[in-house]
Every structure is written in structure tokens, then in C-alpha cells.
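Q: What would this chain look like folded?
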Amino acid sequence: MNKDYVMKLGGLLSIPLLIGLTGCFSLGRGEPMQQHFVLGGAAQQENAAASRDLVGLAIGMRRLQIAPYLETPLIVVRRGPHQIGFSEFHRWGERLDGGINQAVAGYLATRAAFRGVDVAPWPVREQYDYIVQLHVLRFEGMAPEDEAATQGEAHVLATWEILRQDGAVLARGTTDYRDRNWRVGDFPGLVASLDRGLSELSDDLMRSIAGLGPPLAERR
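A: My prediction, written as C-alpha cells:
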């Protein structure tokens, strides 16, 4: 077969392949860049009184239970009472349930001289003074139904239990945090506000743990 003919045929066959690849891997130059966010950056604080009372206690964090509609990498904004939207270009950089649990564990660890604050799965046969179970019902921005309005709020709603290692419930509570200064569309501001809500949740847990005292630490 003529060599020049083979080269021309190869060039012609490559044209539709290049066209197909171009269609599959669009550069999307007109689209905004995706932004990814993580939790755990709120201001750290310590409670000196609680630190003295809770020195040496070990805390275990069970796997977090989260509302099904929050099981997505996309940041959620609720518009009005019933409509929810998922932001394609503003995403969590990790699984949200794990990120929340890790952030709360980190905040707890700064509030007292605990022996440790471990997130499940924890080491086999590890003993804990208290187990914390979180249930996150809301973790989102809230915008008015009027799409022209710009004043929204950030909302964190969670219930929680503090348990013994055998599963007996020692305390229950609810944290309902709202920041009404969120400007709709400001996603870095929304994440920062939601993170502050987790810091407040940690404060609620600390107050409850401090009220219970050290059950296992006294027997070590």
C-alpha cells in the first residue's frame, strides 16, 4: 500500500477522535471555579475551670448521624421553608459527617485537658469515660423566598446524647445555632458561620460533661 496514502488515511481517522475528545473534556472556560471547604477553623478557646475538673478523662465520638439530604459534597442552601438547593461550585472537601465529627472532637480537645478525644472507629478495647452521639438535622444556609433578597442566615441544628460505654444515656441536649448576619451567596462566610455553630455545640457538650463528673477516671 502507498505510504503517503496510509499517512493521509491516518490523519483523516484522527479528526473525529479529536472532535470526540474535545466534547468529553470541555474546559468550561465560562464556568466559575469550584471551591472546596473544610471545617475546624473556628477560634479555639479553653475553659480553665472545666480543665481542672476534667483532667485525664477520655471521650469517644460515635459515628455521626446526619439528615439524608445533607449526605452530599455540595453545600446546601434552603430557600424558604421547603425548597433546598445544592451549590455545584461550592463543595465540602471531605465527607460532611466525618468533617463535623472531627471538628467537634478538635474543639472539645482544646476546652479541657482530656486524656484523649477519639472519633470512631476507635482502638479495640479502648475505655472511655463518656461517649458522645451527635444527630445533625440542619447544617446549611437559609435564604428568603424572594430571590432578590440578600440577607440570610446560617443554621446548625443538632441533638446529642452523652452515654456510658455500655450505652446508658446520661444526658441529652439540643443545640440550635443561627447566625442572621450571613449574606446570601457568600459561601466562605457561610462555612465560617457553620463552623462557629460547631464551636457552640462543643460548648454545650462541655457544660454537660462538666456537670456529670469523672466516672471512670476515679477508678483508674
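Residues 5 and 204 are 78 Å apart (CA to CA).
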